Each structure stands twice: as structure tokens, then as C-alpha cells.
Amino acid sequence: MSLQELQNIEFGKLNLHEMKDVTADIIGNRTKKLRDELEEILLQKELLEKSLEKKSHELQEIKYAIFNDIESLIDKDDVQTLSKLHQVKLQSIDLFDLLGETVEGAIITALEKSKDSEAKETIQEVIKELTYQTIKEGTLNTIRVRKILSTILHSSIDIAEATPNISEEILEATLKGMRAGLLQSIDRFKKRLAYMPLEAKHILIEDYDTIMEDLNQTDTLFLQVVQTQANESNPAIRKILVELNKKMHYDLEELIYISKETAQVMKERFSELAKTAVKKADTALKSETAKEAKRMGIQAWGVAKTALNGAIKSAKNALEQKDK
């Protein structure tokens, strides 16, 4: 619809519903080409995401095959060499996608191959390693860390339910391993803050408030994960987890300390970058988008004020009618 056609519309005579229909029609006509282009891009994005997922899966499969080929060349009795290879494999494979199965396999193997006196310590150590390796693959944010801890604990619960005579030992070792792995991940993040490239620092600045909040509630996050899994388990497992969760309150002091220390380091390291970000935000406020946002804010206030004035006027009229 052209400007001349718009001038023929008597907007002053339109009610709200008609105004909505007319503007929708105008927007539809003027934006059709852009919307068609956007739909085409979104389709391409969807195809690209599917392709990325497929290639990512293929990459994982090739990694597995390579490690299997190397392992076939090593003497099965050469425990030390195999142990080194498996350690490298853990660090090279994207664990997140197969974490549950890996945890399950690791605990079962620890129970089968360790002496009774060593099984608990072995499970704790393997859970610590799996927690650490999986968390360090990606970003240190609450949603991701919660998913990792929940997956690990859920798999451990499955094994504990199948072996009720040692369920408490399995769950306690799992919780201690998870705590140690999380602590190690945060400590690693703290040490890396000093050497992060500028690009990564800017990403952290953009997500600064979220990361700071996450770091200041790691103990709460940990306890919530345990409680949630307890609520979803059978009564026997729930009782064990609730009791262990109470004990964990006293065992999380080191985790709280390292988290708050990391938050402080981040605060100190990025104070200058944060000032720069504020300056950039101030410049952005002068942009056309920001000006339009400001206009809309004022307009929204105007709409609210008009509605409020109307409500007050109606109430006043009602009271006056009542007095008559």
C-alpha cells in the first residue's frame, strides 16, 4: 500500500479492531518480500543444523574407531599403556552425548573389578573424572552443569537400585565424585581467566551477570540436583539421598570457597572490560534501534496513562451517579 493510498484512510474514524486489521494488512503487503526471504533463510538454517548434527555424529564415530584401532595394537596385559590411552580417549571424546551410558559402564566395571574395600574409592575417582571432563568440554553455566550432574546421578541411582546391599556406598561415592569434579572444573575456569583471549573475555562480559550468579550458587545447585533426583526415586533410594544431602551441606564449604574466589577473580579481571562495555552500551543507546525503543517506551507509558485516566474517570462518574 502506497503513501497516497494510506492518505485515503480516515484513521481517526477507526476503532481498535479496525486499526489492527488495517495495520496488519499494510504490514503484510509491505513486508511480504522480506518475510519470504526470512523463511528461506530459516529453512537453510534448519538444514544446516541437521547437517552439523550429522557431521558431529560422524566425527564422534571416527574418533571411536581410531581409539579402537590403537587399542587393538596394544598388548592387553600392558595395563599402564592402556590406562594412558583411555585417559586420552576420555579427554578427546565428547562425553555429553553418551554420559549416562558411560557412567553406568564405569560404575559396573568398578564394582566387578575392584576389591570390596576399593570399589567406593574407585567409583568416586571415576565419577570425579567424568564430571570434570564433561563440564570442561563446554560453558560453565547453570543449565548445562545441572544437566550433567543430573545425568550422572540418575545413572548411578539405576545401579544403586539394582544392587540394594551396597546402594548407599555407590550413591555416596557418586556424590563425592561429582562434588570433586565440579570443584576441579571451577578451579580450572579460575586459572584460565588470566589467559583467556580477548574475544572470549568479551563473551564473558556479555554473560557477566549470569556467570557471576551461577558461581555464587554452585552449592545450592548441587543440593537441588540431589533433592530433585531423590524426589523422583523409590522410597529406599530417596531416604539414602536425603540423608546424604544433609551431610553434603557440611562438605560443600570448599566448593563454596572456590566458587566465590573465582567470582572475585572474574570481577577484578574484567573491571576494565566492564567499563568498556558500559561505554559501548552508552554509544548503542544513540543508535536508531535504541531511539525507537525509547519512543515505544514513551508510547507504552502514554497508553497506560490514558487507560488509567479512563479508569479513574469511569470510577468517578460511577461514584457521582451513586451520590445522585
Strand content: under 5%
C-alpha end-to-end distance:
52 Å
SSE order: HHHHHHHHHHHHHH
Largest sheet: none
Using only CA atoms, what is the Rg?
29 Å
Catalogue the unreliable spans.
none
Mean pLDDT: 81
**How many strand units?**
0
Structural class: mainly alpha
Oligomer: single chain
Shape: elongated
Helix content: over 70%
The helix count comes to 14
Please describe the topology of this protein:
Blueprint: H1 3-7, H2 16-72, H3 79-92, H4 99-113, H5 116-136, H6 142-162, H7 167-193, H8 198-206, H9 208-215, H10 218-231, H11 235-251, H12 253-269, H13 271-284, H14 288-323
Helix pairs in contact: 2-3, 4-5, 4-6, 5-6, 5-7, 6-7, 6-10, 7-11, 7-12, 10-11
Please supply descriptive tags for the structure shown above.
mainly alpha, 14 helices, single chain, 324 residues
Explain the overall architecture.
Helix content is 85%, strand content 0%. It is an all-alpha fold and 324 residues long. Helix 2 packs antiparallel against helix 3, helix 6 runs antiparallel to helix 7 and helix 7 packs parallel to helix 12. The longest helix is centred in the N-terminal third of the chain and has 57 residues. The protein is elongated, with a radius of gyration of 29 Å. The mean pLDDT is 81.
